[in-house]
């Protein structure tokens, strides 16, 4: 099957009938839901597990991406919950991720660790798939409003950022912050899969607004958008 959706925070199933398939990889076993729409099979992988039981820094990104590659996936849409440090992107907005800045500290970020795999320096001129992004924009015209595109700063988590960190991330060109897109996007690129990440703004970043956000804000913003977003993914994939 050539197409997959990776669900971020708040997106643990896809609202379609599915069966679960267990895929063994050299990095570990991965459970992938397989949905079938008009004869087209699409894989769905909830990044944090179905019960949101895996924190961002402990996700087995290499197993996840290798499992998708092993079942033949070439095109991936993912969703990412993000905090905003750009006044133009308010909680509830949908933003296309156009680039990333990596502030992770302690996770395997490559398949290429020398030895059998060799040493490969993957090109990052365009980490995200322009075609998938354009198709998403095109297909979303009648249902959701996309606020724009933004640079994603990936932190190690699981803690949120300090206000001084957010000040720095803004200064260096970040628009939104999350904890998962690195190394996911990098590993997709290393495996030659087209990867697109759609950001759902769930909160203002620390220090941007004085009120503290809650998990309710996070799930609320995702809830508001997830059905439309998955329908658009499916529409693009069925074309
Ligand atoms: N920071 C980091 N990750 C996040 C945030 C945030 O404010 N919101 C959702 N994921």
From TrEMBL:
Classification via PANTHER family: S-METHYL-5'-THIOADENOSINE PHOSPHORYLASE
Tree of life domain: Bacteria
Molecular function as annotated in GO: glycosyltransferase activity
HAMAP family associated with the record: MTAP (MF_01963)
Record-stated family: Belongs to the PNP/MTAP phosphorylase family. MTAP subfamily.
Residues that coordinate or bind phosphate: 9, 47-48, 180
Miscellaneous comment: Although this enzyme belongs to the family of MTA phosphorylases based on sequence homology, it lacks several conserved amino acids in the substrate binding pocket that confer specificity towards MTA.
Protein name listed in UniProt: Purine nucleoside phosphorylase
Top-level EC class: transferase
The protein's Enzyme Commission number: 2.4.2.1
Subunit structure: Homohexamer. Dimer of a homotrimer.
A Pfam family it matches: PNP_UDP_1
Location of the Nucleoside phosphorylase domain: 36-235
Record's function text: Purine nucleoside phosphorylase involved in purine salvage.
Site (Important for substrate specificity): 161, 215
